[in-house]
Backbone:
């Protein structure tokens, strides 16, 4: 999946675009595969992120950065 800026850079939050083909492929996956992907990503982030990085990530999600 290619992530690209959908708008000129602005303060707070984030956005990205996906193609219709990327959406079609994702929708074709069974729910179990999607949930496994999500669990794997969460497990990785829990191990890989430092407390400082986790704090930055939360502020970014809220649009504070």
Residues:
């Amino acid at each position: 999946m290619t992530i690209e800026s959908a708008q000129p850079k602005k303060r707070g939050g984030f956005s990205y675009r996906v193609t219709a083909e990327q959406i079609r492929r994702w929708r074709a996956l069974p729910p179990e595969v999607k949930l496994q992907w999500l669990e794997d990503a969460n497990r990785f982030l829990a191990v890989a992120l430092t407390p400082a990085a986790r704090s930055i990530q939360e502020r970014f999600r809220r649009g504070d950065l």
The chain has a mean pLDDT of 86. The radius of gyration is 15 Å. The helical segments are 20-28, 31-48, 51-62. The chain has one domain: 1-65.
